[in-house]
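Lesson 9: reading folded outputs for more than one chain in a single document. The general rule is that every protein is listed as its sequence immediately followed by its structure tokens, and records are never interleaved. Here is the first one.
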Amino acid sequence: MGTWRRVLAVFAGAMMLAAAPSAQAQTEMRQSFDLGYELRNFAKTNERALALTLLPDYQVPLRTIGLRKQAEGTQILLEDGPGRPFGRNFLGNLCGNHMDGCAGDVRLDDWEAQGHGTVEPVLWTARNGSTISGHVWATKAGPAKRPGVVITNGSVQAPEELYWFAAQTLAKAGYVVLTWDPQGQGYSDTFGEGADARDGFPSQEGRPFFDGTEDALDFFVSGPAAPYRPRPSCTTGTDHGPKQQARVADGRNPAFNPYHALLDTSRIGLLGQSLGAGAVSYVGQIDPRVSAIVAMDNLRAPTSGPVCASAPQTRPKDPPLTKPALGLTNDYALFEQAKTKLPDPRAKQQASEKLSALGVDTGSLVVRGGTHFEGAFIPNAAFTATLRGNDLYAWYLRAWFDRYLKGAPAAERALTTDRWRADPLAAAVDGVRDGNQFSQYYFSRLDIAALDGRGRIACENLRDGCATITPDGLAPRDWGFLRAVKTPDGTTAPDAPVDALPDAGGPRAASSCRDTRAPVARITASRTTVTRRGVTVRGTARDRGCGPRGAGTVAIVRVSVARVVGSRCRSLRQNGSFGPAAPCARATFLPATGTTSWRFVRRGRLPRGSYRIAVQATDAAGRTRRAADRGSVRRLRVR
């Protein structure tokens, strides 16, 4: 309550730039331009800063966490920087230090440490060879199989932390969520690799968001049976799979999504903001793996995406629009100043109207006084936003995915609620105590099919209300995403817009532990031979994991056979030939047969010389132990 006392103190008597309008005028759409109203409306863009991020008890952790993240970035570059083969390099990224406005909402930084859920950092190689950084989010308790959502950032100053409010909201609601930094953002590489070094640079040209969303989906659905492998580069056709394989081999990248066992790949949604909104509006419609879309500032009706020369069939022009898509947007565009005339009230909903004309479920919601940063939490006063826009976004994006990925009946009530027409916390900081969160300049609309088959639920003016917009009865009137995500793992958030557990998608998981140990693989020396006629390697693997009595699951075993040339190694490749000499730590690994008891056999004439045999195993969580100790590496000679 301390924060809200300060909020009221800050706003008491402020923003009273003109006499309060009548109740009817506060409800209805503007019919003529009123400078006094516009000044009050534009003043709302400073609410987040004045009521939250500029307060001392927010600034102190912001600086502390920013310094810690800067140190983390420095450590990453020392351990896995450009000095290493296939090392990372994000020095050219504006938010590579993750400080100040790049830190995101610091109230969410300790989510896992406080026992609210679980999150795993991940890395993968994009199709142009850049190393992409991300996190996978979930809760320990919940269904054995869950729908998933991939979140695509905006551009420039938009690292994944800006969207953790959405990731944690969805994870607490029973989703597996992937957040990631497109190339040129956060901890992802600034440049591509080799022939594709300039591909996707600068990132604002769009390719890292469109190509990157597809790559992120590829990683998200990867698993032990189909480990992640990057697609060929769109611009040169180069295969950067060897980089991904090399980084997996030495433990820098996971082989696949560590939470793959939780993910129901038949129920996937996309969420994007700004340039990311354009990407998900297009990719979501053309990718058969995607079932629902939410675009934050704003939804597009796509006609095309960046050309992919190596796979033009993946980028059709004027794709069919069939997926339900919601647009969340605001009164003010990126760094827009106060208005001087009435705008077109339908200007923000053109994509939604096109979907409605095709009979596709859709909506377009416009936050009163909102800015481009309602859906991207930047704790810097220059990046203005309202106080409650973030909560409205969280409510509706959650409800949209619950409706179209879970088919939850309560989601329909959440979407057709009237709560945002009279929000008490919005009224508390508003200059004329208006709690209606919907714009008076632009229409907010909803057009969806009723779950019970009774036809369509449509409202073209959510601010004024419709007969279909009613109380939801799902949560307190002052619901906020922060309270919802700060509940202990395994409990339903008391403020959740829709009951988070259980999910109709599957039974509850039997175990809520988290596997943190990589498996151990061993070569059985007495059953391993290398001769002029071929190689046979046998051994065992085990994973302590955290299942019953600590038993884990070994998903795949890989073996490297390399001919030693001086201090370097030439690795046996899948086609039976040996690759060029490279550091032995970057040896190529090939799949073995079996898991806990495995074998690797290759027939063919081998040259005389010294050979290095190595083995590594990957568990069901995607963890790989680097082949480095005596039991996992053997030296043999062919005479």
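And here is the second record, again sequence then tokens.
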Amino acid sequence: MMTKNIVIVGAGYSGVFAARKLSKQFANNAEYQIVLIDKHSFMTYMTELHEVATKRVEPKHIQFDLRQLFVHQKNVKVVTAEVLAFDKEAKTVTTAENVIPYEKLVLATGGTTNTFGTPGVEEYGFTLWSFEEALRLREQIERIIGEGARELDPVKRAAKLSIVVVGSGFTGVELAGELIEQRKELAAANFLDESEIKLYVVEAAPTILNMLSDRKLADKAEAYMTKHGIHLLKATGVTAVKEHAAVLADGSEIPTETLVWTAGVKAKEQGSKWGLQTGPAGRFMADEYSRAVGEEDIYVAGDVAAYQEPALTNPDNPRSGWTPQTVEGGESAANTVVPNIVFDLTGKGTRKVFKGHYQGFAVSVGAHYTVAYLYNKIALTGFLANMMKHIINYYFFLQLMSGYHLFHYTLDEFFRTPNGRTPFFGNTSRMGNALWAVPLRLALGVILVMVGTNLSGTLGLLLVIYGGLIFLGLLTSIAAFLTFIVSLILLFMEPSTTLLLIPFASLALMNGAGRAFGLDHWVTPMLNDFLGKTFNGKMASHYNDLKK
């Protein structure tokens, strides 16, 4: 008997969630298989696009290979292809290589940026709603700041050194937060002062983060951004984008060659080709069972689906109640689609009416600050909120049952991130510090103080001093080197098996062990900066000594 197909188009959150859940439901039913179609061979972890765009993590960090995700689900077939045609009557989906018949079809094709027809955005602006767009923006930021540092014309220089983010939703704020931190790296790499790189956030509404019902959290995020040099323009719209400027509603212009439009989401343009009823922002209208309106065999889920949930709808506000274009909205749709398909094909269970489950939000403003609102009652900021966002991400990986990707997420977010861009300000990153030498450093510091207090004279005093410095992580490399010398002298004077370990431990700590949870984390960069400027002067992107 020929295997029947449940076809899912789109391998975003909703598509992958639905495929995994359907695979489990039909694990013992050889009559059906799940076919997952996407133009990429990987799932893009959309909520981390801003980290890739600003070089906090490498692109592979947000690429989850579909074959790896479903390696144990033998009834899931992955097809990497563009969908070319769709026939509702024949119940087929056509790609460049296959004509795929289906029993049930799930459309989870995702969304894209809604520019609202603003002139110039397509030609001169940047967006951040796909893997390719993140790479394009990543290249642009690094290239344009370098060009700006070398530009002599002050007008052109200002445009190259200004980045404008349009929209203060989650994407806009998270991107702005990452730019705050990347600015330090860009300035150092191009011999600029940080103040020369201008960052703007332009929001048409009078407030930011308008999806947060707790306005105090939005105010705290705003205060953090303002404190760190973001020029926040509220109640201000961008009416046009030029090659070298953003035009505001009042006619004024911000000089820029890097405008990132994050102010809206709509269904992808391909949506109109499916011949289905569409609603707000071109999204497919869904009924209470997450089927496309008027269709029996076609379901819609994720950013591409529009359903106005009665329990959340305010009759006086036509914009209320619509499923949000978030991970939780997509997951809620997948949790509705799957039992309904199972009921359609096997008669098992009952039909399920869509009900959104929204535990809350966590919005990072860079690696070091986050605001979170959970279960509509718990407000968190700073480190705790930051940890909560990572816990939410861990929960996502647990749902995918992918320990491999969870492990690499942990490495990339905490241990492989350069330039201090972790919640622990780089202390855990092996790219800049020696985290695992900390226990040895602390133990050696205590041992040296104990040995030194039992010795009389100068050598005992020196060991106490060096032990204290090593324990505190202050001038650790120097203290470890001097400890190495003193320990050799002691060994020469009085050979001891115990003392024999001290010179080897000292050598191990000369790799800058004080930069991890030690005072050297702050003191060493300050000394480097002070000594460099004192003996070599301050670097700049331009020189004109005659002007002095």
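What the second record shows: The mean pLDDT is 89.
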